[in-house]
Specification:
The protein has an 8-stranded parallel β-barrel, surrounded by 7 helices. The protein starts with a helix and ends with a helix. The mean pLDDT is 95. It is built from 11 helices and 8 strands. It has 279 residues and is of the alpha/beta class. Helix content is 52%, strand content 15%. The radius of gyration is 18 Å and the shape is globular. It has 2 domains: 40 residues, no CATH class; 235 residues, TIM Barrel, CATH 3.20.20.220. Bound molecules: flavin-adenine dinucleotide. The site of flavin-adenine dinucleotide has 23 residues, from strand 4, strand 7 and helix 10.
């Protein structure tokens, strides 16, 4: 690692659990000690090399099994493209991980990638859901299609993690302004509370979290807040102290750089944090 990368890594440690599985499990344990479940993600996407696909698959099996052996309250979150681009083979791998999760009483979350993959990711999810109800999928409030997707998933008993969306997308597919995205998030949140159960509210946005708390007062459903490691730490503590369930998403692995840069560009104060560590 170059000196610059080492300095960036110091800041990146804020948002990632480390570079290897042992570090991730330690972070998961620390997360449990704070009262939160850990959602462990092995970083990477768009993998085509068969040996790397196999490596990703084995890594997820290890996370599930070692977490269970050590009695860590954790589950995995994966991206289908970590298992290549052949839908059938992605389905088979996710089915095996779902089965392992079922045996170990762990959930499996499927992250949503860019809009080019939305349809395929949902097809994969629907196939896996036929046999495994411990699996959920992320929907992005910035996507214009998400309301229809949400209604469909809820009608067939799907589990949803609602987030705003993190990719740069073609203008015709997404809502553009922050206000429109937040309004759509509110709308989808209400649908989740009115028609869903066992879902995840994945945002750090105080206003939306307050809306979820209000909806929870009048709709007695199972849900949890999910947030990313290193972001809104005090808010997580407040939610836990008020009795809400919170899970912390812990990404780890060699691909830490791109993930960390996504977090940096998301929020201006992080650019400062990074600049201060390098200068
Ligand atoms: C558990 C979880 C899973 C996710 N899964 C996916 C997925 O599968 N697909 C996908 O496209 N996206 C995913 N995301 C990312 C999500 O779409 C957003 O890009 C990200 O969460 C920022 O949106 P926000 O809801 O926090 O709202 P924002 O409006 O971005 O932020 C609200 C407030 O949170 C704080 N905040 C947010 N981000 C940062 C940051 N980087 N540093 C410091 N403070 C910050 C700030 O106080 C900000 O004002 C996930 C997010 C979470 C929490």
């Amino acid at each position: 690692m170059s000196i610059k990368q080492a300095l960036v890594y110091k800041v990146a440690k804020h948002w990632i659990a480390g570079k290897d599985l042992e570090e991730a499990l330690k972070a998961a344990q620390a997360t449990n000690e704070k009262g939160m479940r850990a959602i462990i993600n092995y970083l990477g996407e768009d993998v085509s090399d068969p040996s790397l696909i196999e490596q990703n698959y084995i890594e997820y099996l290890k996370i599930q099994n070692i977490a269970s052996e050590r009695r860590i309250n954790a589950c995995i979150a994966l991206k289908p493209t970590q298992f290549g681009s052949d839908a059938q083979s992605e389905i088979e791998k996710i089915q095996t991980l779902a089965q392992e999760g079922m045996k170990l009483k762990q959930d499996v979350w499927i992250d949503m990638e860019s809009s080019a993959l939305t349809e395929k990711t949902l097809e994969i999810y629907l196939e896996v859901l036929k046999s495994y109800q411990n699996v959920g999928v992320a929907l992005q409030a910035y996507m214009k299609r998400s309301e229809q997707d949400l209604l469909h998933l809820l009608a067939i008993g799907g589990r949803v993690r609602l987030c705003k969306g993190a990719y740069r997308e073609p203008a015709n597919l997404v809502l553009r302004s922050r206000a429109e995205i937040n309004d759509n998030y509110s709308k989808l949140l209400r649908i989740l509370f009115e028609r869903g159960n066992d879902f995840a509210v994945a945002t750090h946005d105080s206003k939306l979290i307050d809306e979820a708390k209000k909806l929870a007062d009048s709709h007695h459903v199972n849900f949890e807040f999910e947030m990313l490691k290193g972001i809104r730490i005090e808010l997580k503590e407040e939610l836990l102290a008020s009795g809400y369930r919170v899970s912390d998403y812990l990404p780890y692995g060699n691909q830490w750089y791109n993930y960390s840069m996504r977090r940096v560009t998301e929020h201006p104060s992080n650019i400062w944090l990074l600049a201060r560590s390098i200068l």
